[in-house]
Amino acid sequence: MIELEGLTKRFGAKTAVDNLSFQVRPGVVTGFLGPNGAGKSTTMRMMLDLDNPTSGTVRIDGKHYRDLPEPLKHIGALLDAKSMHGGRSAYNNLLCLAQSNRIPERRVAEVLDLVGLTPVARKKSKGFSLGMGQRLGIASALLGDPEILMFDEPVNGLDPEGIHWIRNLMKRLASEGRTIFVSSHLMSEMALTADHLIVIGQGRLLADLPMADFIHQNSRSYVRLRSPQQERLKDVLHEAGINAVSVPATGTLEIDGVGPERLGELAAQHQIVLHELSPQRASLEEAFMRMTADSVEYHAHAPGLPGAPAAPAPAPAPGMAGDNPARPADVPAWGAGFDATRKGGE
Ligand SMILES: Nc1ncnc2c1ncn2[C@@H]1O[C@H](COP(=O)(O)OP(=O)(O)OP(=O)(O)O)[C@@H](O)[C@H]1O
What we know:
single chain; Rossmann fold; Alpha-Beta Plaits; 2 domains; six-stranded mixed sheet; four-stranded antiparallel sheet; 10 helices; disordered C terminus; binds adenosine-5'-triphosphate; transport; ATP binding; nucleotide-binding
């Protein structure tokens, strides 16, 4: 279990993470979503004690990260797959990490096998493709057989086979009772992977709810009709007390709350020709974009979706004051699968 209470991080005048409070529970995949610059990576870095909170706390199984005796055995993370030592083989990268965390060498071969890298174990990691690098980062996260795993944008740049593999791996790890926390800015991807959802925007909590609830709340279903007798069809629907909205861009009508059977029968009764009668479901990506519309920091110039009020967010727990002292230099560094250098601005 990961617990955040009133977690806040400021970089000068910029508040990257703003009074975040939530829990990440075991046995499920929890998706961590937010648009670019929302504060996901900064939050994850504070979870691993790589950035100091300005205020608030993070607890890993009830303890501060720095108080975990052998951290890799509690929590594994993939933050930045490119941070491996390129001049070392995959095997040696993992071996160094294992040795610094008193993990037996046989575990190195086990995790290489688990991620499918055994055939290239002795190759230097600088020659690895993006997908192989991600697998190596995941192997490093799994090395200590931790109960908690965090993945920052693990499917970035992967091919469909790689995406499928990571998705199944996360589900399997969760089904073993582990705590899986995975960030993404793609709702469509998360909808296929996560059981629970935490959404942030401009560092603030926007939603904390089961994925099934998000899908239920945001899957607007409607019927689309297209007819060469559009105006007549509209009149007929109006007479039947059905509200149809014209969509000029597609030349169609959209109807909420009435099934396709009834609409088809009405058209037939009035001998109206239909070229399309199709049930539709609004995309989750659109719902996510509406939820975060007010907090998107970097807008493209193309016209976006209309802004809508953010989804009701659970009230954040009261923040806990108190600065976290800097992590001492001798605390075992993560070493792999992430970039252990602190971001500037502290
Ligand atoms: N070291 C730093 N100094 C100053 N500002 C920073 C620093 N690190 C992050 N920020 C700012 O904090 C905000 C949150 O950044 P963060 O990288 O955590 O977001 P993110 O949700 O992970 O974004 P992305 O999806 O683009 O990776 C951004 O506005 C970013 O510019």
